[in-house]
Amino acid sequence: MEKIIVKETKELKGEVDISSAKNSVLPIIAGCILCPEKIVLKNVKMLEDVQVITSLLRELNSEVEYSEITNDLVINSYNINPLEETNELVRKMRASFLIMGPMLARFGRCKISLPGGCNIGSRPIELHLKGFKALGANIKQGHGYIEATAKKLIGNRIYLDFPSVGATENIIMASVLAKGTTIIENAADEPEIWDLINFLNKMGADIYGGGARKIIIKGVQNLHGITHQPIYDRIEAGTFMVAAAITNSMIKINDVNEEHLMPIIEKLKECGVVVTEEENGIIVDGRYDKSTADIKTLPHPGFPTDMQPQMMALLSTIKGTSLITETVFENRFMHVPELLRMGANIKIDGRTAVIEGCTKLTGCDVNSTDLRAGAALILAGLVAEGETRVGEIHHIDRGYKNIEEKFRKLGVNIERVTI
Predict the structure, then answer these.
(1) Structure pTM?
(2) How many angstroms separate the CA atoms of 303 and 262, rounded?
């Protein structure tokens, strides 16, 4: 069993490089199924989730090669087989469900087991299936699997009851090769959605925005191979921004821009953090007095739910009362008991957390309950007195590649140990 051990750090110094966005890389890898030619993805870190979905493609007979030196991922799905039976890999990661849209588009059928992932909420797949049905697919569900079939997908107008990121991505990919035009209303608008769209358009798709939360897909007959570099991970960048804030430090975050980080930047500014954009990155200066802030998570361009646990760690150290309201996932306060073990003062009322900032956290044994909760516990460990030992770190590895190495370069006393 592995743990990450963090010791109290007085100040961070230096620069940090941010990886490509996991939430861009995963749907883009699924999108490679649509194309029978070689695709090269640049600057891809082999996170646990990336390993799972690439292993799934290999099992389906895609050619997948990865270079640890260049971080290039090369995929050729010319000989890929349709997924016709349940697969254990799909159960390990919810993003594996994103192969259903491309499989349905290319082969007209797909049978897949119900997906797994972090236990932070129900995250129902009904919106995905609603989209597939609107495109003309027949859906059968039972015994832990879902089967979709269609002789030919036909473009249609689809309204999503909620701007689900996964459903938007899956419907876009299902519609790329469909006959006619598909219009998705109330679509998700995250930067990762538009990275997927840019990727597909480079391959020959015809997709564009039609106004607020509207995406228009005109079906094409085929796609061609390309080289593409996914966008940077705004959640990883946000995590290191909070690290500077919580330790009263100034660091540089390389190769990011303010555009995708605005909701995070604005809340940090409310707390008293200074963020300055430079030509090749941003400077985050957390050396000033801090103020409390209230946060409500919302679909983009609102405050991202994936940054809620990290901000809770920060607000737990700022004197005064802060409120966090979680509107996206109903179970995304599972990190609260772990922060309480470290001395935080947090009370939960439904979907709202009331945080009374304390002057000092203390290190202890805690467990990562999900991906972003694990990041929050490391952040808390940066300022906790003594030593913080974070367990269940496989959750962290799903979204952060060698997180301890990046923190170590900033001067943090942190190590990964096997117990």
Answers:
(1) 0.91
(2) 9
